[in-house]
Amino acid sequence: MAIQKTLEEHREYLYQMVRLKLFFLRNWLSDHPGESLQEVLRKRIDIYRKTSINSGLLNPPKPDFDCTAWLELERALQKIYDQFHDVPTEFEDAGFALFRKTIDERVGKDYADSSRLAGYQCGSLRYNEYSDGAKHETASFHIANALQPESIFADPQYMPGCLWELMRQTQEKYGCSRLATTTWLNSLPRWLELFPQEWHDNLGPENTDVQWNYGWWGQFITARGTFNFKYGDWMRQTGRMPFYPRSSSCSFENLQKHLQDKFHLNLGGLPVHRVPAEEKH
User: Cβ neighbours of residue 68 under 8 Å, at least 6 residues apart?
Assistant: First the structure.
């Protein structure tokens, strides 16, 4: 049985994630000379929210990039980059040393923060809420791990049950008849087993325009919430992420049949409601 991570393990997770993101930053700037270090820090990696400058929860609604403390760190990192951009190890070590104190100041609050599951209505799945009172064909959803320290795949019935509940709720609330998401998991075979052929047929291309959110960076977190050294090493060796987000969608009807046939899941009471064209918004 998996055990909960300790505070020190969480500290090490933050250290390793920040180091990996500094590695990524240097590589990205080398391959994208038209982009600035500040742009990468604010758009593509989330070092900000792992520091004490982030006074809020894990996902601050609006990062305060213009505060004096953060601007000073940006300027200091720019000087380190100017000095060591051709020497990867020195850049990463000096960059990490720059951020270490403010990471240590954040670690306790970060460890105690349970807000990552806020608003998740269906176990490890959260669908977008609508307040317009209209019918909506598609339920767009997001994924987290509500079973930590266990994997969402530990129980083969768990994720099918979450998907079934998501269909039930969104059909009842909004008349949905399809579901869709964009995630790195859409490049993971174990995740794709959950879905019918329609989902596989609708898979879009890899999105390599890396952003700072968990749609890209979630793969570097293990089921226990520690750093995924296997995937981190992959990036360091190849310069690429192991998986990139892809979009896909399918009908409730096809997903229900797939879950019934493959996982013998049948929770009952989920008639497919098709939204007439004139009702779609």
Answer: none
Q: Would you say 124 and 147 are in contact if contact means Cβ atoms under 8 Å apart?
A: yes
Is 216 among the domain residues?
no
Cα R_g (the chain), whole angstroms: 21
129 beta partners: none
* Residue range of the domain that includes 176: 118-207+245-279
Question: Could you give the C-alpha distances from 266 to 51, 231, 258, in angstroms and in order?
Answer: 45, 35, 10
- Residue ranges of E strands in the chain: 125-127, 138-143, 178-183, 246-251
Q: What is the dihedral of CA 163, 249, 215, 58, to 10 degrees?
A: -50
Note the pTM of the prediction, 2 decimals: 0.91
Q: Is residue 277's pLDDT more than 50?
A: no
Domain count, the chain: 2
